[in-house]
Design brief:
The protein is of the alpha+beta class. It is built from 2 helices and 12 strands.
Length: 223
C-alpha cells in the first residue's frame, strides 16, 4: 500500500527565508565643517537625532566630568576647543563632550591629525569611565583617521573626548592636538534585534524534516 509523499525540502527553505529576513541597521552620521564657532556649546540634528557639543579648557577632570567651559572651535577640519597654545585643537587636557538626545551606541569617530608628532586622546562614557585610549600617527597619508568603535559596545547618551598630547607651547611646532571631523552613532531605540544565525535556523529546519520522516515511517507500519 502506498503512502502520500510530501516535499522534504520545505523546512530547509523556510529556515533560509527566516535568515534572509533579518533587517539591516544604519548609523546616524554627524559631519562637522565650517560654521559658528567660539560658542560654549553647538547643537546639531541629523535624521531626528539631536547632538550637543560642549568645549572645556585645559585642566578638565574626566573622573568628575567637570572643568572650565571654553568655546567650541569649528573649522573645515572639524571641531576643536578655542584658545592657545593649541590653537583650536584638542590637547593638553582640553575636552569636547558629545551629548545625544537619545541613548546611542557609538560606532565611529573621524579624527583630523596632520603633523610630525603622534597625537593621543582618551574617550570616556556617560559614567566618566575610560573606554578608549588612542594614539594617531600624523605621518599617515591622509590627515583624516577613522576610529571604528562598533565592536566596543559603547552605549549611553554622553561621551567625552579628552586630548592627552603634551603641549609644546614656545617650541617650533606648538600646535599639538586633534580635531573631530565626524561622529557616528545608532540610537538605541532603532537598533534591530540580531537575527538567529543561519546554522541554528537550518538545524531547526532539519529537526522538522526528521520529525516528518519519522511520522511517515510510523504511518507506513500502521498500514
Amino acid at each position: 500500500m502506498s503512502t502520500r509523499r510530501g516535499p522534504c525540502f520545505v523546512p530547509i527553505l523556510l529556515a533560509g527565508a527566516l535568515v534572509a529576513a533579518g533587517p539591516a541597521t544604519a548609523a546616524t552620521v554627524f559631519s562637522f565643517g565650517d560654521g559658528v564657532d567660539d560658542l560654549t556649546s553647538l547643537g546639531f540634528t541629523q535624521s531626528g537625532l539631536g547632538l550637543t557639543v560642549e568645549g572645556f579648557n585645559r585642566g578638565y577632570d574626566p573622573v568628575t566630568g567637570t572643568g572650565a567651559r571654553r568655546g567650541v572651535n569649528q573649522g573645515v577640519n572639524g571641531l576643536g576647543v578655542s584658545g592657545n597654545p593649541e590653537s583650536g585643537r584638542i590637547a593638553a587636557g582640553k575636552a569636547l563632550r558629545f551629548t545625544f538626545s537619545d541613548a546611542v551606541s557609538l560606532t565611529s569617530l573621524v579624527i583630523h591629525e596632520s603633523g610630525r608628532e603622534a597625537e593621543s586622546f582618551d574617550l570616556y562614557d556617560s559614567t566618566n569611565t575610560l573606554v578608549l585610549s588612542q594614539v594617531i600617527n600624523g605621518d599617515a597619508a591622509s590627515p583624516f583617521h577613522t576610529i571604528p568603535l562598533a565592536g566596543l559596545n559603547l552605549m549611553g547618551n554622553a561621551f567625552t573626548l579628552v586630548g592627552t598630547s603634551v603641549s609644546q607651547f614656545g617650541t617650533p611646532n606648538p600646535n599639538r592636538g586633534i580635531r573631530v571631523q565626524g561622529v557616528s552613532a545608532e540610537a538605541a531605540g532603532r537598533i534591530s534585534a540580531v537575527p538567529a544565525p543561519a546554522s541554528i535556523l537550518l538545524g531547526l529546519g532539519g529537526l522538522g524534516l526528521f520529525g516528518w520522516t519519522a511520522r511517515r515511517r510510523r504511518r507506513g507500519r500502521d498500514f
